[in-house]
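G., the chain you wanted modeled:
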Amino acid sequence: MIPEAARQALQLLRAHKARSLLTLFGLAWGAAAVIFLSGWGAGVVTMLERGFFKAGKDMGEVWAGKVGEDFTPAVDRRYLWFRMEDVQALRRRSRLAEVIGAESWELLPAAYRQRLLSVDVRGIEPEVMEVRGVGVAAGRGITRSDVEHRRRVALVGARARRRLLGAEGGLGSWLRLGGIPFRVVGLLEEVGTQLSRDRMEIDDQMWIPISAMQALWPRFWTDDFVVTKIVYRVKARRLLTESKREVRAILADRIGVSPEDEEAVGIWSSLDFLNKLPLDQTRSMLAVLAATTLLIGGIGVLNMMLDSVYERRQEIGVRLAVGARRRDVVAQFFLETLTLCGLGGGVGVALGVAGCALLEVLPLPELVPVPELRAASVLLALAVLCGVGIAAGVIPAWRAARVDPAAILRME
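Predicted structure as tokens:
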């Protein structure tokens, strides 16, 4: 039965070459579109996550602002700041923050030989490197010993290294930050374009021990060692909102403000922006659009098979007259339809898989989404293809089974 159905399907294709080509093209295009668009939707999500998480994956950023206008009279809206003691207290009391680190910033002139560059200098703890997830291409990172001894050592971002140190500078070079000598002990890996950043990108920054930053460039309004920002990595992405409440409550208690005052203790995460984007809806819409394209190809198969039933009504009548069962005729046309869908869909699946694989290896720009080849996309294409084949085969098979052999023989 199956070999006969395949033979009849191939004969049908040869008999109507132009129509067959268009029908198979519609099926192939639809199947390839299901795989490609589903993979592209996943690629968009991956691109956005990669771009936002270059500054730190699942990271929360905390800073001190001023007392909110809803919590104090306007004349008493004092400015606030965090100290190292607040960071240590947060480490002791937080249950949801996995790693916590402190940063202190300055925009300083950096000089090396005859070159001068304005650089975003970050005083950091070793934990900041872990939270931000930036590797060291050469040398070493900032250590706890560097912080304890206030060593004048620096890590240089990839673009800052090219612009300031040039080809002749590297590990062991001495440069001056704000007129003070620092030794380069590490070169940061290139991060690339960031979709989330504060001031300059990491590639343009230099990192030094936070203790050296606080001692050499203290804040004029206080004798405290001021922390510009606290960064932390949440244990699980789903705990982001809860972690914000916990972190704000701990720090608000430390600086004497209300835990409801979001202006006093500001917290932001790139996850906030990602969660607002309709990424799941976009992927679903692309899958529906691709499936609709495949359904249109199925309509072509349906029309072809209905024409085939009409053209072969004499054959059907003779078969029924000599004893063939109607279910045999139904099965014959149903299998022919599935064969056509299998031919066109198989080509489309191959094209979709090849297209995704090819784009994955091409050197595309960072912010161009690359379709991701996933088993779920291929299974979705095959599932829709089977559905199209079944739907397109039911009506022609039913029409063939209703042929009256006596009427057909009298006509002939």
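The two ends are 27 Å apart (CA to CA).

Shout if anything looks off.
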